Amino acid sequence: MPTEAIDPPGIAWLRVSPKYVTVRLVGWAAGNLIAVALFSLPLVFTLLGWWTWPPLWLAVTVPAVMLVLALWRLALIPRQVRAIGYAERDDDLLIRSGIFFQRAMVVPYGRMQYVDIGVGPVERGLGLCTLKLHTASAGTNAEIPGLPADEGARLREQLSARGAARLAGL
After folding, report:
1. Distance between alpha carbon 39 and the CA centroid of its chain, in Å?
2. Distance linking the first and last C-alpha atoms of the chain
3. I want to staple 87 with a disulfide (CB 3.0 to 4.6 A). Which of 27, 45, 65, 94 is the partner?
4. Phi-psi region at 10: left, alpha or beta (left = phi > 0; alpha = psi -120 to 50)
5. What is the DSSP pairing of strand 92-97 with strand 85-88?
6. pTM (2 decimals)?
7. Residue 6: its pLDDT value, please?
């Protein structure tokens, strides 16, 4: 259910590339498969008779719970990617994300110090990038992941020009 605090009326949100789901899936696989494998080691050692503790029910329950949580996170990835959006306005950039815990961030162009683009190996292979906005505030963590590389370059130049124009007007 949208709220005006997260989705102001009249805003046309631009979404990130659907290819970003693949980037998130690779990250999910790397992290969760290793975690489930590590939490399964006590079960393997118990079944082989090398360990007498933990009890078999606990050795089964822990990796099973981890696997269920991992599969739940896997099911959420496509929806989380669809929830990421940004909108360019006259004086600021809006960035939104989140399903359960939604977040909307407004970054005024005059507060931007520099705009950074990062590309990981999976993103590079898919032609995507992550745009990061840096302001004077250390707490600002404004980034737009999953942008097509050409859109990221265009947005970087556009935001840098707008930031320089607003900063010069101060």
Report:
1. 25
2. 39
3. 94
4. left
5. antiparallel
6. 0.87
7. 83
